[in-house]
Amino acid sequence: LVCSPTDSQVSGMIYRNSDELCASIVRSHRETSQYRVEELHALRWKLFNREEIQAYQSKSVDEMWQHCAIRLTEAVQYVVEFAKHIPGFRMLSQNDQIALLKTGSMEVVLVRMSRLFNTENNTVFFDGKFAGTEVFKSLACGDLITAVFDFAHGMCALKLTEQQIALFSALVLINADRPCLEDKGRVQRVQRSVEFGLTHILHRDNQESLMHKLYQRVAVLRSLCSLHMEKLRWFSQRYPLTAHSLFPPLYKELFA
Ligand code: MHQ
């Protein structure tokens, strides 16, 4: 009787843990985010010129795919680092960590890409400058590029803070409904704590209505990733040698 904590002690306990959880996810996001927002803002008008765009466009399909696969893999490596520092992620089995990264890392890369996006001219920071869709022309998957740019545009419209992006990224990654999980229950517990953390900061920011909009973005992410896989299958069939020997091993391990 004397030992049971009061309601306010319990909620204090939950809130302190949630604050700590949010703080470590935000820290992890900051330390693995590749570029800081202020840095990107300063470079906002550094665009590729006509000759540089021409150079990308005259690359062969397989050359450009290889180039983008390398860039994408670099971005994925930062996401893997981010994941490792989400409280609870390391407690999952190796198998479940890989299963979550296989399905979620590309989605987090796309969420993060919205930070690198300039909505004023529809460009993304790529290879040191801002690039429009025309830069990716030789990939020969215009529909995917358009969909990815549209997604970035939609994410930017939500005007998320870095903390909100961090928590949302963690939530995208820690999803108990992913296929091939050994211990769904444990993933579910980590997912609930991240969900609680996101709810907590949205409440604090007085932006609870964002939760619904964020869940809508998750559905778009799913469709983008299946389009990416579809394009990859198309590419691997046409250029088996490039796909087999010139793609980064991590790219192959996660997506092939
Ligand atoms: C960089 C920023 C950046 C910019 C553009 C060919 C292939 C592997 C897939 C991003 C199909 C195309 C690219 C735009 C595709 C999914 C491309 C289109 C990190 C990498 C990143 C995010 C690129 C990743 C690959 C993207 C999404 O700092």
List keywords for this structure.
11 helices; 4% strand; three-stranded antiparallel beta sheet; binds desmosterol; single chain
Brief rundown of the structure:
The chain is mainly alpha-helical. The chain contains eleven helices and three strands; from the N terminus they run αααααβββαααααα.
How would you describe the overall organization of this protein?
- By secondary structure, this protein is mainly α.
- The chain is 68% helix and 4% strand.
- A three-stranded antiparallel beta sheet has the order 1-2-3, with helices on one face.
- Helix 4 (61-84) crosses helix 5, helix 6 (142-157) packs antiparallel against helix 9 (210-238) and helix 7 runs antiparallel to helix 8.
- The protein is globular.
- The protein starts with 6 loop residues before the first helix and ends with a helix.
- Residues 34, 65, 68-69, 71-72, 75, 109, 113, 116, 124-126, 136, 139, 141, 144-145, 148, 228, 231 line the site of desmosterol.
